[in-house]
Amino acid sequence: MRLSNYFRNSLSRQVILLISACFIFGLLGTALLFFLQQNLNHQYIENRKVLVEKRKTINAIYDEYNAVFLDIRGYVALNNQQLMERARGKEKGIRALISELERDSVTISDISNFREMVEFSDYYFGDVLPNMITNYENGNHTEILDIANTETTMKVERFLKDTKAISSALDNQLAKNVVELSKNQSNLQLIFIGFIVLFLLFVQYIIRMIFRNIGKPLIDFSFAANEIAAGREAIIHVDPKRKDELGTLSVAFQKMVESIQEKEQGLVAQNEELIAQQDELHAQQHELEATLESLRSHEQKLSRRNELIHSISSTLNKKEVLQSVVQNMCKLIGADRGIIKLVEEDAYAAFGLTQKGIDRFIRFMDIGLVQRLFETKQAFTLKREQEIAEKGYHENINYCYDLYLPVLSSLDKVEAIMVFSRYGHNFSDKDLSEYEALARQIAISLETIRMYEETESNRNLNQDILNAVQEGIQLIDQDGKTIQVNQRLNTIFNQKTLINGWIGLTWTQWSSLMAEQIEGDKFLVDLKKVIESAVNAEDEQSFVYCKKDTKQIIKVYAKTIYHGDDTLRTMLVHRDITKEYEVDQMKSEFVSTVSHELRTPLASVLGFTELLLNKELKPERKMKYLQTIYNEANRLTLLINDFLDVQRMESGKQTYEKKYVDLYPIIETAIEHQKVNTTLHHFALKSDIHQSIVFGDKSKLEQVFTNLLSNSIKYSPNGGNITVRISENLESVFIEIEDEGLGIPNDAIPHLFQKFYRVDNSDHRRIGGTGLGLAIVEEIVKASGGKILVESVYGKGSVFKLEFPRVITRELTKQAEGISSDLNYNIIVIEDDLSLAELLKLELLDSGFHVSYFSSGSQAFEQMKTAVPDAIVLDILLEEDEMDGWSIMKELKGNERFQHIPIFVSTALDEKELGYSLGAQEYLVKPYQPSQLSKVIMHTLLSNGKQGQILVPE
Amino acid sequence: MKRILLAEDEAVLRMLIVDTLEDEDFIVDEAADGQEALDYLKMEKYDLVILDYMMPVYTGLELIEKIKAGETLGHSKILMLSAKSQAYEQERILLAGADYFMEKPFSPLKLLEKIEEIVNEA
Questions:
Q1: Topology of domain B3-121, per CATH?
Q2: PROSITE patterns under this entry (chain B) (predicted)?
Q3: Is the predicted ipTM greater than 0.85, yes or no?
C-alpha cells in the first residue's frame, strides 16, 4: 500500500516504474531465449555423442567379427592354431562391446539389435566355433564344409549385413540429428522474432499508459485553459483521487477556475454597472455639450472681460488704469475713439481725441448728453451722421454710433462716465448689457484704486504723523524685535540710514546700538525695567538718559499695545526733554535767582525803612537811606517789568505797534540815558549815516538798546570804552555795541539769549541779574525782522551785532542826501464814509504816503485826469454815487492809462472772488486794522517798485 | 569789643548791616566776595561770621567748608544769610555747618538782637 502510494504520488516515479518494467520484460525474454538455445545445442551434442559411440561400438563389433572370421578361415585353411586362439580371444572383447551396446540401448530397435547380437554371439561362439574346432580337430572336414556351406555361413553373412545396416542406420540417425538441430534453431529464431514483436507491443502499451496517465490530462488542461481563456466553461476529467502532481494541479486548476469564474462574475456585475453608468454619462454628455455651447459664447465674453480686468488690475496707478480702460474698451467695443472721466476727480483718459475736444467735453459735461447718465444710470447709444472730419474721403452719408456708458459703484453711484464712438455698426441691447457689466468691473477696479490710494495715503499719513511727532517712537514685538520706528528716533541716535534700517533689529542689536551712545551704564537695566512695568500693566514708569555726543536729555517711557487678539507689542517713546530739563534747571535757578534778586532790593527797602522808623538818625543818613530805598524800589520795578515782558512773550501776548522808525535817534537817546549812570565808561557813537529806517515798535526798540547798553556797563565793571557803530547796505541796517568788559566764555555764548540763563562764572556772579535782559532783546529783534548775535573774547570784551531789514524810500535812492519821511507815493482813497476816509488818510500819511480822498468815483476820475496815482483804495458800496466800486474797477481796468494802478478794495462786502476776478490787488474786508492797509500798499508798491531794491518787513 | 566779619556781595545790604552793627559798637570787617572773606578769615579771629549764601568766587557754603576744613583761624560762629527760604535749603545750610540761619529779607533790628545773643552766649 505504501509502495503504491509511493508511486501514486509522483509522475516521474510512475514513468520510471513503467520503463523499468519494460526493461525487465526484455531482459527476461532474452535470457529465456538464450537458455533455450543453449539447451538445444547441448541436446544435439549429447545425441550425436551417443550416436557416434554407438556407431563406433557397432563398427568395432563388425570389425572384430570380420577379424574373427578371417582368423577362423586362416585357422581352418592353414590349420594355424594361433589364429584359432586369437579368434577365440576376441570373443571376450566382442562381448564387452555388445554389453556396451546394451548400456547404450534406448530404443526398441537398439534392444532388438542388442539381442540379435547377443544371440548371434551365443550362436557363433557357443555352437558354431566349438563344432568347427572339434570337427576340424577331429578332421571331419566334411562336416566343417557342411557347416560352412550350410546355415552357418548364411547366418554369419546375415549378421554382418545386419551389423552393417545398423551402422548405416546410425549414420542416418546422425544426419537426421543435424537436420533436426537446424530445424530447432530456425524455430528458435522464429520465437525470438515473436518475442521482439511482443516486446515492442509491450513498450507500446507502456507508452500508451504513460500517455493516458500524463499526456492526456495535460492536453485536457491545455484545452480547458484555452476554453477558459476563450470564456467558455470547461471541466477537467482527472480522477479526483489522484495524488500526484497532476492531481494537485487539477485541484489547483479547479480552484483557479473557480476563482476565475467567481471573479468573472464580479467583473460581469461591475461591467453591467459600468455600462449603466456609461449610459448615464452619455446622457450627461449630451446635456454638457448643450451647456458647453452656451458656455462658449459666455467664454468669449469673459475672455474679453478678463483681458480688460487683467490690464486694469496690473497697476494701481490711476492714470495708467484709466488709459488702459479706455484703450481696452475701445478695442473690445471696436470703437474708434473714446474717453473715460471720473466724476469726482479731474482724472480722465482718452483715446483718439484731441486735447481741445477733451477739454470741451469736460467743460460741458454737466449740461451735455452725459447728464442723462446721471439720471438714468443706464447706458444709451446715439446714432448720428458722421461729421465732415470723421467722414474722411467717403462721399455717402455714414453714421456714427456714440455709446454713453456710466461706471456705477457698488452703491449705484456714477463713479465715472465713458463715451465711445463707433463708425458704421450699431450697438445691440445685448452689447449694452455686456458693456454695463464691464463697466461694473471697471468700477470695482476704480474702487480698488481708491481704496489703495486711501490706504496708502493713510499709511503715509500715519508714518508722516509718526515722523512729525517730536518724540522718538519705537515699536517692538514680544521678542524685543523692532517693528517700526519714526524719523525722530533715527535723528536722536544719529542713524544715517533710513528708518527702515531699524526694522527687524533684535533686542540685542538695537539696545546695544543705543547704549553705545548713552552716558552711564544704567540704560539697559532701566530699559528692561520700563518695558517690564509696561508689559505687566503697572503704573507708568520712565527713566532719563543723556546722549553722549549732544548731551540731550531723553526721557523714555513704554506703553504696551494689544494688536489683534493677543499679540503684545510695546511702544517705546523717547522724548527729548533737553529743553524742559534745561528750562527746569533754569527755572529752579531762576527761582533762587529771582528770590535772590527780588529779596536783595526788598531787604534793603525793608531794612532801611525799619531803621528810619525805629532809630533817631541824622538828616544826611536819613537822606542816604531814602535815596537807597528809592533806588532799590526802582530796581524792583525794572525787575518786575522784565518778568512781565518775558511772561508776555512766552504767552504770545506781547504786542508790537510797528511803524517805520528811524533807529538813529533811538540809539542816540539810549546812549544819553545810560551815560548818566556811570562815570567809568566812555561812550562813542560811530555812524556814516544819520537815518536808518526799519519797521518796528519804537518803544520796544528803545528797550533793546537800553538793555544792551546797560549790560555793557554792567559787565565791564572796570569801565572802558563802549562803542556803538551804525552802518547799512542795500538790504540791512547793522548796529554793533562793543565793550571792553569781562567778555563771555565761549561755551556760554550759545545759551546767552535763553531766558533765565546766567553765565556761571565768578566774575559774572558778582553781577546781579535775572537772565532775562538778553532774552527780551532777542525776542524784540526777531519780532522786528532782525537778528542778533554776539562775538566775544573772554576777558577782553564783547560785541553785540544786530541786523535789521532796511526800508529804503524812493526819496532816499533819488537823493542820497535827502532826509524826508515821505515815501513820495500818491494814493487816492475813494470812500463815502468820511470819518473812515479820514482815519485811512491819517494812517497812510503816517506811513509816509501822499493821500487824497474822494467820496465818489466821478470825483476821483476828475482828479486822475491831471495826476495818475500810484495806488487806489476803493470802497465798493458808494451810496452817493451812481457808480459803485465794481463799475469803478471795470472803468479803471478798461482804461489804458489806469489799468496798471493797483486797486486795494476796502469794503464790508465779502466778495473776494469777484473782486480779484475784476483785478483787485488786495481785498480787505472791513473791519480791519488800518495799519494793515498801509502795510499791503507799501508791500505792493515797493515790490513793484521801479527801482526794485526795496525790502519790506513782514 | 566784638569782632564780626560780614561777607555780602550787595553793597546796599552791607551798608545796612554795617550801619546797624557799628551803631552798637561792633567792629565789622566787610568782604564783597568769597575770596575776600577767606582772606580776612585767615588773618583774623572773629566772634561771628555773617555769610551771604550767593556770592562770587566762593559761595557761603563753600566758605563754610573751608572754615570747617581748618583753612582759617579758630572756629567762629557762623550766621548764614540767604534768600533761599525753602526748608530743604535751610536744612542743607545747617547740615553743612552753619550755626544760625536768617532769611532775606530780614529785619536789621532782629538781626542785631540775634547777633548780640550769639556773641554774648559765647
A1: Rossmann fold (3.40.50)
A2: RESPONSE_REGULATORY
A3: yes
